[in-house]
Give the backbone structure.
Amino acid sequence: MKTISELQTIASQVRRDIVRQVWLSKSGHPGGSLGCADFLTALYFRQMNHNPRFSMSGKSEDLFFLSNGHISPVFYSVLARSGYFPVDELATFRKLNSRLQGHPATHEHLPGVRVASGSLGQGLSVALGAAYGKKLQKDPGIVYVLTGDGELQEGQIWEAALAAAHHKLDNVIVAVDWNGQQIDGPTNKVMSLGDLPAKWLSFGWDVYNMEGNNMSHVVACLDIVKKAVGNGKPKVILMKTEMGYGVDFMMGSHKWHGVAPNDEQCKIALNQLEETLGDFKI
Amino acid sequence: MSWDKFTSLEKKATRNGFGDGLLDAARRNPNIVALCADLAGSLKMDLFEKEFPSRFIQCGISEANMIGMAAGLATVGMVPYTGTFANFSTGRVFDQIRQSVAYSNKNVKICASHAGLTLGEDGATHQILEDLGLMKMLPGMTVINPADYAQTRAAAAAIAEYDGPVYLRFGRPDWPVFLQDQKFEIGKAITLKEGKDVSIFATGHLVWNALEAVRELEKEGIDCELINIHTIKPLDEKAILQSVRKTGKVVSAEEHQRNGGLGDSIAQLLVQHHPCRQEYVAVNDSFGESGTPLQLMEKYGLGVKDVVAAVKKVLR
């Protein structure tokens, strides 16, 4: 099992991968990707029981669904770094004939992706279906799903929130990337989410708070939540992150939600992120 | 000709065919699960619920979540059938079907009842006439619209054996049952009567109306060929072209908008391979309204007399 320090080492490389993918394709979403790098690193390198020799049905494995598909750069990096496909394939991100579509897709058969996402609000429902299926199959695997916080403005999320509690899907763990930012500005200005913990509690969920950019806390929180699997209630982790975390000029606002750095900005960004596992080749 | 055997001894709704076919399939395949958005009785899914309670998933009035859950169930190897009215099975959840089911190529069976005008008194809010068009435009989606109880029952079971997304459309009213003992093969048209003067391609409830029209026209010496297109997509191009090369005249008949329905699929095929005259029996760019199924069919041009008129017009 990876230590905190080893996970931090990996997360640094994942952040470099994010910046370089987006810079290379001159498009994509670096902000949310950087903010979720610690969580996804902990999930794939420590928390989840998963097999990089990918099978779609993932029998006896833990599954992960990315609902906020636009943060595909972090998803692709973590999948490649954990062995689902060659790391150098990250250089094809968003390019013609690539398996690494702008938003994750199964259509090109990229190992590790189980459903297309991008149109927001759908991944939680898909995760619930997978969790329901695992229960029917008496499969002990846990189903994880990541959503954005702006994504919670989609009505389907709350349909799913009702259904998960109603069906007692206690093998589902949702993380909400609570960075408080979305494309048009701070979430509180665009469409307030109100008292988020109270909302999930009132829907019948167990609610946890996580400092999403503190690896020790990410790991400790995931360990605690995992212990509660099987208690009859779905679980949501409200994960406080900073959009753009790790690159100083990308932090503190919504401006780097979906903007690619130019050559100079990329250079500055990479100077702040240690190359620990070797960059993918261009 | 032996086509006279297609007579009706009884009336039964196609939705009953779905309920029975789902049960037939579920008894054979333990991976089948059924999801329903608060309409189990209307879709006759209560039979399944009673026999397989642990495999029945009540989703409440949350169609978007139901489609997503079905995609997730398919991901882990189950064979989910979703059930609600056709309106809520398609238009309401088009984006969910597009991304989570069709683009993701999930083995989800979207089963849609109360399609078209024959839903009747509930009126236009519920009478979707655009669903075939919406579904057939999605890459990889198979679209099926059976004609009677027996064909719907057979289709509901057959789609379990096919691996991929399917839209299965059926209806509310009691309707003549005339297609017993027909083999159901996805994408394979069924010739109900051979003829030389005109090719009638009909789907869903309109197959019976077309059959009645063919009987009337025969009395007037018009020899119609009647082909049941139960699968709108993939279209049985071979059967259609073979028939049209013989007759040179086409009538299409469906309980759907002219725009985007079966008739358009046929016209698209013929304009490339065998251009010829075609008349549409379909709703012409209009919403429906409240009324009985038969009243509505008559008012919106889907009755037996409308098929007769279309044949005569195309032969002029």
Observations:
- The beta strands of chain A are 63-66, 143-148, 172-178, 181-182, 185-186, 206-211, 235-240.
- The first helix of chain A runs from residue 4 to 25.
